[in-house]
């Protein structure tokens, strides 16, 4: 299947990309591994694409002012291979390694994944569990959006029409923080049927986020509260598992691959495994 006709512009700076974006019905092109398939399916028909894959200021991972900063154009493979990520955010390393296949990891970017907000994507659960903020810029200025405010619906986010994600900032976890990402993947695409990200801080606070289960990734406050501050033992883990998915303000999903009931079951199984991993 081929796309409808479109024009192509290559931006070499963020300013160039923003100027082009403000100038008609264009879309940013990062890795193209979500956008191009959706153009082939006619779900997206932009007049022109603005290729941002060569903008050097959108690349790289650094520690800055108490944050791990992952620039939006950093590929899944670059995250996988980052020593800083392996040391400070090991569950980002785990997640990067289970995204798609080598080609997808070499081209796809974290910024593209967050902007696309596929309900089965991995990064949304990770940025939620890690208390990340998402830095965005437009011609009107820049702002930071908390990950918990970023995902607003199926394939929809708090991003404004002409905004571009520049970076994802994650507070450097205190020493002794433990993390886990557990995923039940679709056997063909490797998208998450269920993904569960857990971050356990030394003071007993636990962040829990799910992807794949609902129309968008979410933090599970009920499960977090059931287990927070407790010794992670069989009883507290069971309390979290029992509390999980209750009272959430999201619609749960079922499809040909996994019914809603099965996804809910898997979510609890993968939460338990993730809690065991950080215990
Ligand atoms: C076969 C296959 C398997 C896959 N498996 C997985 C998987 O297991 N897990 C998973 O999470 N994902 C998976 N993906 C998706 C993959 O990770 C994509 O690369 C990712 O979702 C999108 O990143 P991209 O850089 O390719 O973005 P693009 O496709 O270039 O763009 C996606 C959307 O984001 C917008 N965009 C891109 N960059 C920015 C930016 N900086 N600011 C604002 N908007 C921006 C674009 O305009 C577009 O609307 C898979 C894809 C394929 C084709």
Automatic annotation (TrEMBL):
Domain of life: Bacteria
Pfam families linked: CO_deh_flav_C, FAD_binding_5
Keyword Cytoplasm attached: no
Record domain FAD-binding PCMH-type: where: 1-175
Flavoprotein as UniProt keyword: yes
PROSITE patterns hit by this protein: FAD_PCMH
UniProtKB keywords: FAD, Flavoprotein, Oxidoreductase
Signal peptide boundaries: none
InterPro entries: CO_DH_flav_C (IPR005107), CO_DH_flav_C_dom_sf (IPR036683), Diverse_Substr_Oxidored (IPR051312), FAD-bd_PCMH (IPR016166), FAD-bd_PCMH-like_sf (IPR036318), FAD-bd_PCMH_sub1 (IPR016167), FAD-bd_PCMH_sub2 (IPR016169), Mopterin_DH_FAD-bd (IPR002346)
Protein name: Xanthine dehydrogenase family protein subunit M
């Amino acid at each position: 299947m081929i796309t409808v006709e479109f024009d192509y512009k290559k931006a070499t700076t963020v300013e160039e990309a923003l100027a082009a974006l403000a100038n008609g019905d264009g879309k940013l092109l990062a890795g193209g591994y979500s956008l191009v398939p959706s153009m082939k399916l006619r779900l997206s028909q932009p007049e022109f694409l603005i290729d941002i894959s060569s903008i050097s200021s959108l690349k790289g991972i650094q520690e800055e002012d108490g944050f791990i900063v992952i620039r939006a154009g950093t590929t899944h493979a670059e995250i996988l291979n980052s020593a800083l990520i392996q040391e400070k955010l090991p569950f980002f390393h785990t997640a990067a390694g289970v995204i798609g296949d080598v080609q997808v990891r070499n081209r796809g970017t974290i910024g593209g994944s967050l902007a696309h907000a596929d309900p089965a994507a991995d990064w949304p659960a990770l940025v939620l569990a890690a208390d990340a903020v998402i830095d965005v810029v437009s011609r009107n200025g820049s702002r930071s959006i908390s990950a918990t405010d970023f995902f607003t619906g199926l394939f929809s986010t708090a991003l404004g029409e002409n905004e571009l994600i520049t970076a994802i900032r994650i507070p450097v976890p205190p020493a002794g923080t433990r993390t886990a990402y557990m995923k039940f993947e679709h056997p063909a695409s490797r998208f998450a049927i269920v993904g569960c990200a857990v971050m356990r801080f030394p003071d007993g606070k636990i962040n829990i986020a799910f992807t794949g289960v609902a129309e968008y990734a979410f933090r599970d406050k009920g499960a977090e509260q059931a287990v927070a501050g407790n010794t992670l033992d069989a009883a507290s883990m069971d309390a979290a598992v029992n509390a999980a998915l209750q009272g959430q303000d999201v619609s749960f999903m079922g499809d040909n691959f996994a019914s809603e009931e099965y996804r809910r079951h898997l979510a609890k199984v993968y939460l338990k495994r993730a809690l065991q991993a950080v215990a």
